[in-house]
Amino acid sequence: MDTALHHLIDQINTAAAQRTPLRIRGGGSKDFYGETLHGELLDTTSYHGIVSYEPSELVVTVRAGTLLSELEAALAEKDQCLAFEPPRFGDLKGTCGGMVAAGLSGPARASAGAVRDYVLGLQFVNGRGEHLTFGGQVMKNVAGYDVSRLMVGAMGTLGLLTEISLKVLPVAPAEATLVFELDQASALAQLHRWGAQPLPLNASCWVRDDTAANTPELLFVRLRGAVAAVESACTRMLADVPGSRMDNAQAGPDWDACRDLKLPFFTVPATEPLALWRLSLPQTAPVLELPWPQLVEWHGGQRWLRAPESAQEQLRQAASAVGGSASVFIVASKTTTGAKNRFSPLPPAIEHIHRRLKAEFDPAGIFNPGRMYADI
Q: Do 32 and 100 fall into the same domain?
């Protein structure tokens, strides 16, 4: 057994015996996400590296402590990518384990799928110190209870991820970004119409920069696919709605900024301490009449708001009314209060499942206690 892995398992066994909480951490790029950070540090960065990569099979296996930037660089050399565009925060120290544990996806989520759709298999250490393997390196290996994907978005509360096998895809031959001046309701309606047509829609972003005067409301749509398909779609969409085509040299960095929450919308002056709220809604949800700035992604499925933490009840009621949920993604500051629960409360039946899973995988309750919910 690898020395680094052996050390991690020893630390878990000791913690379980003493019921000492452990805080699983890779690069720390997502320390802001979730509830409390509590426990003795369990650092995964020593267990890193690309275990295997088969470009012809579109499969890569990495250790959890591997930098996401390292994996993406290796894929880029073969003109391949992670199609779900995982966000890269901070100074690019995020790890592949953190990517899976957080379960966050970027602008292409609505068309390409989420993180969990690309996890073929993984290995992890449970609260009993057992090193377990689930899934494999091809889709047909996924049978029975899909534990591999269960770990996606669990935020390390069920166990320590050690190795992950991912499906990768070729980089699209062509890409184009179109921009239209539309209000939010018109933008959503148009996206739904285009979505019903055979167009290579890949990502969308509607935004109005409320920090600048006389700024128009803009819808950006990214197309990806075969050259002929992208060019045909551009002609067709610009004939439907007056707009323009951006230069890829300008559009590329803008989409990266959207992916990493670095657009002007996400920057709030210190004099205006507002939390960043993330609303997950059905794509067909109407415009939410709320008094705060919004940025809309995923063809309407993900909506970001800058609002005070005290607006928790209003935002959650608005999201729930259309079949969605609202969570505090980034608090206004470490000293503010108002959002006691970062995530929407779970329905009783789902909470019961969460508790049973936690008790099965982590009977001593040592992994990231309180990271998702205060007492789970």
A: yes
Domain check: are 235 and 116 in the same one?
no
Distance CA 92, CA 29 (A): 8
CATH of the domain at 304: 3.30.70
Give the pLDDT of residue 139: 54
Range of the structural domain that residue 318 is part of: 270-330
Q: What is the mean pLDDT of residues 136-144?
A: 57
- Tell me, yes or no, whether 212 and 248 share the same domain: yes
* 292 and 249 within one domain: no
DSSP strands (E only) in 172-324: 174-181, 201-207, 218-225, 244-245, 275-280, 294-297, 302-307
Average pLDDT, the chain: 92
Question: Rounded to an integer, what distance in angstroms lies between the CA atom of residue 169 and that of residue 186?
Answer: 33
DSSP bridge partners of 296: 206, 303
Both tokens of 54, joined, read 């088969």
Asked whether the beta carbons of 26 and 362 are under 8 A apart, the reply is no
Are residues 230 and 288 located together in one domain of the fold? Answer: no
Q: Does 346 fall in a domain? A: no
b/e 129-143 (16+ beta carbons within 10 angstroms → b): bebeebbbbeeeebe
What is the CA 368 to chain-centroid distance, rounded? 19
Rounded to whole angstroms, the Cα distance separating 287 from 102 reads 28
Element (H, E) at 70: helix 68-76
pLDDT in tens, 37-71: 889 999 999 999 999 999 999 999 999 999 999 99
Q: Give the number of domains in the chain.
A: 3
| 315 exposure class (CB count in 10 Å sphere: 0-12, 13-18, 19+) | buried
pLDDT in tens, 298-311: 999 999 999 998 99
CATH code of the domain containing 193: 3.30.70.260
Dihedral sign for Cα atoms in the order 86, 87, 93, 99: negative
What is the model's pTM?
0.92
DSSP H or E stretch at residue 96: helix 96-102
Q: What CA–CA distances, in Å, run from 315 to 207, 312, 325?
A: 19, 5, 9
